[in-house]
């Protein structure tokens, strides 16, 4: 149980285009999901907290207009990287908190974004 | 915010050796998880251990919440244990994101 999927697993896009990444909890509902970014040989950094039915909360330094987050259902959150640039190339990982409120988080397999 | 420090940053072992990875955190937590990140980037959930001791095969973990540290033990290491081990914690509120340490990179050679 407690499986989280991400789609796509890998994407290459041209500079200036937008890319959407989906995060799904497959066998549980998640009121809260989180988006992290990981650069090569670094740790995971929290980008934003996504709550179903409300606006996401972004960490300091993360542009909310560039990284659009939508959490429209209890099993799906999406991250859209708008007007992508090469510096946005990274590994994006989501996690989900089961509902009712739980402390243990479950992570997706990640999406590797390359912007050319 | 909470600070998470992991040590050592790098560890090189011969197959069959035992090792201990440490995670120190700066404040009280309600969640502590240990992960192994495989070469493809997937985070493998090893332990959910905000306190106490757990064992799973060759791996075990102990968290002493009052002293704000956790230890991950790997016994009889195998080459497949290689990778990055992360400790992550969240503060005393439900629905709070995990804060990750910088990780310990383990290399096990045959």
Question: How does this model look, in words?
Answer:
The complex is a heterodimer of chains A (116) and B (110). By secondary structure, chain A is mainly β. Chain A has strands spanning 4-7, 10-13, 19-25, 32-38, 44-51, 57-58, 67-73, 76-81, 90-97, 106-107, 111-115. By secondary structure, chain B is mostly beta strands. Helices cover 0% and strands 56% of the residues of chain B. Chain B is built from no helices and eleven strands. In chain B, the strands form two sheets. In chain B, strands 2, 4, 5, 9, 10 and 11 form a six-stranded mixed beta sheet that branches. Chain B has a five-stranded antiparallel beta sheet with strand order 1-3-8-7-6, with no helix packed on it. At the A-B interface, strand 4, strand 5, strand 9 and strand 10 of A face strand 4, strand 5, strand 9 and strand 10 of B.
What can be said about this structure in brief?
Chain A has 116 residues and is mainly β.
Question: What attributes does this structure have?
Answer:
heterodimer; A: 116 residues; mainly beta; 7-stranded mixed β-sheet; 0% helix; 52% strand; B: 110 residues
Q: How confident overall, as mean pLDDT of chain B? A: 94
Q: Given the C-alpha coordinates, what overall shape of chain B results?
A: globular
Estimate percent helicity of chain B: under 10%
Helix and strand sequence of chain B: EEEEEEEEEEE
Beta content of chain B: over 45%
Contiguous helical run count of chain A: 0
Looking at the chains present, what oligomeric state does this protein adopt?
heterodimer
**Structural class based on helices, strands and sheet pairing of chain A:** mainly beta
- Helical content class of chain A: under 10%
Label the overall shape of chain A.
globular
Largest chain-chain contact? Answer: A-B, 25 and 23 residues
The major pleated sheet of chain B works out as: 6 strands, mixed
Compute the CA-based radius of gyration of chain A: 13 Å
Task: List low-pLDDT spans of chain B.
Answer: none
Distance between the termini of chain A: 37 Å
Number of helices of chain B: 0
Order of helices and strands of chain A: EEEEEEEEEEE
């Amino acid at each position: 149980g407690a499986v989280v999927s991400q789609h796509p697993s890998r994407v290459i896009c041209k500079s200036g285009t937008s890319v959407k990444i989906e995060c799904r909890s497959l066998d549980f509902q998640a009121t809260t999901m989180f988006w992290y970014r990981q650069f090569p040989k670094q740790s995971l950094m929290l980008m934003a907290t996504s709550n179903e039915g409300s606006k996401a909360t972004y960490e300091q330094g993360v542009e909310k207009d560039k990284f659009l987050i939508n959490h429209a259902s209890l099993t799906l959150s999406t991250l859209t990287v708008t007007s992508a640039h090469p510096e946005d190339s990274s590994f994006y990982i989501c996690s989900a908190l089961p509902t009712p409120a739980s402390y243990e988080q479950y992570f997706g397999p990640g999406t590797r974004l390359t912007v050319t | 915010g909470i600070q998470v420090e992991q040590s050592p940053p790098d560890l090189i072992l011969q197959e069959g050796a035992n090792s201990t990875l440490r995670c120190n955190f700066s404040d009280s937590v309600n969640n502590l998880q240990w992960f192994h990140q495989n070469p493809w980037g997937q985070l493998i959930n090893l332990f959910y251990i905000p306190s106490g001791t757990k064992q799973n095969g060759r791996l075990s973990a102990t968290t002493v919440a009052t002293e704000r540290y956790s230890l991950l033990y790997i016994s009889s290491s195998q080459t497949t244990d290689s990778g990055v081990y992360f400790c992550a914690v969240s503060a005393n509120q439900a629905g709070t994101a995990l804060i990750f340490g910088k990780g310990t990179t383990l290399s096990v050679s045959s």
